[in-house]
Amino acid sequence: MLLLVRNRVKDIEHWKNVFDEQELAGLSAGLSVKAVWRSADREDEVFFILGVEDRKRAEAYMATPEAAAVGEEAGALEGEFWFLEEFPAPEAD
């Protein structure tokens, strides 16, 4: 499973520094950074993909006040996210 996230941010360089500093916290929640992009059309918009070990654990982490504080510290103005799964799902062995 993957998590696709879009954020609009105050300062993209500051956001990226905070994002990089938080990688260990994400790993403890079973999230791993797969890719990070910035919009080619909007300097204040970033997208990133995270690998998800366990959706419930990821959702629990994202709902914590600590995760909200990180977004505020990073200067996230708004965002949205989607959990994605392979389609069609691979067949079990």
Mean pLDDT: 93
The third-level CATH topology is: Alpha-Beta Plaits
Cα shape = globular
Succession of helices and strands: EHHEEHHE
Distance between the termini: 18 Å
Instruction: Please give the radius of gyration in angstroms.
Output: 14 Å
Secondary structural class: alpha+beta
Explain this structure:
- The structure is a single chain.
- The chain has 93 residues and is an alpha+beta fold.
- It has one domain (2-75): Alpha-Beta Plaits, CATH 3.30.70.100.
- It has helices at residues 12-21, 23-28, 55-62, 65-74; strands spanning 2-9, 31-38, 45-52, 76-84.
- A 4-stranded antiparallel β-sheet has the order 2-3-1-4.
- The protein starts with a strand and ends in a 9-residue tail after the last strand.
- The model has no long low-confidence stretch (mean pLDDT 93).
Give keywords.
alpha+beta, 93 residues
Topology:
Blueprint: E1 2-9, H1 12-21, H2 23-28, E2 31-38, E3 45-52, H3 55-62, H4 65-74, E4 76-84
Antiparallel strand pairs: 1-3, 1-4, 2-3
